[in-house]
Amino acid sequence: MFRIGIDMGGTKIEAVVMAPDGAITARQRVATPQDYESEIRTLKQLVESLESQLPERAFVGVCHPGSFSPATGLMRNANSTWLNGKSLKSDLEAALARTIKFANDADCFAVSEAKDGAGAGFSTVFGVIIGTGTGGGIVKDGHLHTGPSAIAGEWGHIPLPWPSVEELSIPPCWCGLQGCLETWLSGTGLSADHHRMTGQSLKGEDIVAHALAGDEQARASLTRHADRMARGLAVVLNILDPDCVVLGGGLSNIPNLSAAIEARLPRYVFSDTIKTVIRRAQHGDSSGVRGAAWLWTLEGPSPQ
Ligand SMILES: [Zn+2]
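A: This is the predicted complex of the input protein with zinc ion.
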């Protein structure tokens, strides 16, 4: 079977052909049209163009922003705002005349890494994205776990556990609550924390660069970040006890982050032994298209 994976980014759409063995054999990128009808048309054209080079119809998986409302089936919370309130699933399935599998970016990331990335060979994988935002996805024995409300793995919007006194003056989160992990662990969260403590305005990657150059304040910011990562993940370990946690997104490039988290976990996890391994992602920016394509293998072929 051939699969086509599509990543619906806000500025570009990427689509790939994945051969039966998982190899990517073709890739196309186009700018994302900024209105709904044009985007559906573009997605259709991309699939038809890639499929014209294949011996048979492909199974199509889509990595989408935002989420589908379980109540209405319509898109919500997408930063590509023209998608919100639309029946993306049924409209695209009608345009392409087939069943299509959909998952959000954190879920696609978890699937991609669990299938043949840093989490390959592990039974339960928790995939974490720490970048502009913070999210997560759960894969158990090759199956993506989404849950009845489609929020499984939404790690970014639980509160920072075991806060210190200083952390109790908690930052507001865009979701309407306060002190969510995302407000501490995302790139903007790291940047805001560094500003609160030092008065310096630095982006996440600049804080990393300063730390590598020996800046003690930047190092301290990364230490606080690693400790908060450990606290956030300790809650996941207490509930899910995954075999592997895979870190992705821009901040997963912080040097030695996995080791720093592993060193701090025993303080917080409710066990005298921790067997969960923390690993950095292998597939980088390709997780959206790769995970979207792998959605079919993980859940078994279905009739088109
Ligand atoms: Zn929140």
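The first strand starts at residue 3 and ends at 8. DSSP finds nine helices and twelve strands in the chain.
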